[in-house]
Amino acid sequence: MTTSDKLTQYVLPTYGRFPIEPSHGKGTELWDVGGKRYLDFCTGIAVCALGHANPRMLGALQDQASKLMHCSNLYHIPQQAELAELITEQCIKIPGKMFFSNSGAEANDGMIKLARRYGHHRPNAHNENRFEILTFNQSFHGRTIGAMSATGQEKIQDRFQPLLPGFRHLPYNDVQALEKAIGERTVAILLEPIQGEGGINAASSEFLSAVAHLCDKHDLLFMIDEVQCGFGRMGHLMGWRAFHESLKPDAISWAKGMGGGFPIGGFWVSDRKMKGEEESLSSVLGPGSHGSTYGGNPLACAVSNTVISEIIEQNLCDNVVDRSQQIHKEIESWNHPLVDEIRGEGLLLGIGLNRGGIPLKEGEMASIKLCNALAEKGLLVPPAGADTIRLLPPLNVSAEHVSEALAILKETLDELSK
Ligand SMILES: *Cc1c(COP(=O)(O)O)cnc(C)c1O
Q1: N or C: which end of the chain has fewer CB within 10 A?
Q2: Cα–Cα distance for residue pair 117/222, rounded to 1 Å
């Protein structure tokens, strides 16, 4: 049986897969089992921040794996303490505390639990607990029952009802709609600075300001999902700072690039005092309130520590900004009839396609057709919805590899538009 046959036979058919079987990689390059070479501008969907087989990351992984992989949060874990310090002191630079999970959906579930606890701790004027979290249309927060209920996409929730109650989905970047939606049971607002899976839609800095203002005014938690856009992907260690330098969120979630390919996620809660109280927000999830068997284990934390340290020490945010400019300049210079626009920030980029210009079969999506055509020529990119492809190279991608990828993109677009 081929791999494809075995997947069909033994793995639930929840994924649509491209007909590619990766074998190994080095940096931005990846080879399939047949020896064909690709440039990897998919990076496992913004995960392999340092590319493949990064020597420093491998060193940390091998070293820690040979000492201690797992020991449980019943004990003190120095790698977890180090990682929490690194993220808080050098990345967020706002006093607060971390909780470690294994994925983005779990990190968001943790933030949802934080909001629920907060809503019990600080009830409304009728002494009712508050629980409603406002999120946005086209958002993506993950696939667990909690994160999926937060997600503003019907196709993700289709026939899984009843969902977890307590979410309302609003138009993104619409201050008036948000203001109107805040009610007596509302307790938090959750958003992505750039909606990744939803098609690369950026928040405006005015919208972020308004969210912060409304949260302050109505005693709501301001929760940011940086699972896709965090740790350098937007050219800033913290993605939202690309749009709004001075914003102070109450809670932030991450995963994807945080482990560079090793599974880890987490969320952070601010140490700020709750209004009119001596207690800090980070005390709301107290002893026994949340946990994870694997979360924050020595191996995952040692690797994540190395990945984030490398991003900081090699100034990879600068490379992200430079390569992003290179991509913008080059694609804009084509003035290509199939390209409507480039959206996004840093190396979280979406190319909006002119659907009308690409001949499609019944039911075929422009994004998937282009992804397949690019893979054929040796460039891996993921789609984002029906009309957008994403460019998500490693944060340390070279100018040469960007040029090579763009040449493939141009050639492919030219052929498709014929
Ligand atoms: C991918 C993603 C998630 C879910 O992360 P998983 O690790 O797949 O659970 C949540 N939020 C955003 C913004 C994402 O891009």
Answers
A1: C
A2: 14
